[in-house]
Fold this sequence. Notes:
Rossmann fold, L-fucose Isomerase, Chain A, domain 3
Amino acid sequence: MIDKNRIPGVGVLLITTPRFRDLGQGTPGGVYRERKEREAGRVVEALSAFSAPVFPGVVYTREDLAAAMRAFDAAEVDMVFACFLSWSDDFAWIRFLRDMRPVPVLFASIVRDSLGFEDSMTEDRFVEFLSAGALVGMLEASGSATRFARPMMERTIGSLAEVAARCADFARAAAARSALRASTFGLLPSMNEVMWSTYVDIYDLFMKAGPETRFLSVPALEVEIAGLPEGAVARATESILAAYEADATVDRAKMEVSVAASLGLEALCRRAGVDVLVLNDIEPTLMRSLGLRPGFTPCPGTSDVTVVPEGDIGGALAVYISKLIAKRSVFFAEPFHIDREKGVFAAGHAGPNDYTDPEGETIISRDERFARTDYKHAGAPFAWHTVSPGEKTMVHVSQCAGRFKLVCAVVDALPCPHHLAGYSHGLFRPRRDMTGFFQELMDIGVTQHYAIVAGDHRRALADFAAIMDFDFRQL
């Protein structure tokens, strides 16, 4: 299982020419190489605000480039930030384009906030004029970048602050790619046979998205539940009841059964090395065996296993990608209905959901959707969550014609009381006309499932889609 909270590793490739290296001896600004070292220091400092930079020094020669690529490989960087510090011979750049392993690359050009000279009439000002020539280097390098057409390369130009902000989003996307390639999804016990539109190709999941899939069984889950440490269920139950309000419908004995099933799910995932559990929580065999659907994942004190319901692997991808990029709780939802009078749509989901967002509201209550069934523990409690108000990003992932598609939009969540029994839920308003919003989703061709996460993450999601070669639409 992987560390989902590590900061991105960024290889810093700063290229310039050996022809200028020793110019400027005795000038107030110092020799060219000293000016470039100061400039490189400012770049590395800016990138350090959101990443772990790997900077092997300014690249002047072929040997410098080879050493830099070795350093990037040794550190297993998530991406490379490439920038020309002035005009340069392009021998280092074209070798990087040819020889660097496939890795996301942000090719950047930094525009100075202040030029630093008025003319080139003195040696000092002439060297600074040469030093400021990053535009020449960028334009020269852009042609080779297009000719080599490396995948996973994006380009940007702006001030250091603007370029660093752009790199922060790109780095989050690149780190999500790395995490996905190291992650494992577990399917328990199957995809949902009544929701074929959510099906994805498991081989494509590995080849095109990254995670491998392991198939988990209900009997293995029963073994994990039976083997839980003595007192673990009571401690977890007490922890939940201490953290959240419980209403009058809660049956303590049934709650402990649900908590035990939730603990068992996570234990099964840890034993199998699974980071994301795609749980078909309405599958009849599972329901008959457990007598309920688990309602308390993530369990108290844990965050290593992500659980997504209804056997939807695309939905699990949307949740996991959102979690990797946003580094916070992610809600799993389907839009229920449009309230034209209030100008909102309601969305949410029954079954297990992440109820731990401290800005939302959680009540422990009966799972009303199954309360009237004949399952052994019908009506067992679950964590009934409402989404906090504020700016949210909706993220959808599914597969069509062999390609993954990622669709995202920013919506505003409104204050929402607990009013849909048995469903964690929220009220949302798109930033455009309601019917046009859903018309576009209808025309794109999606499914009903979305990840919802606080904040605006569209830029990082666009980068992620480009890096992964997913089809992308932003509403």
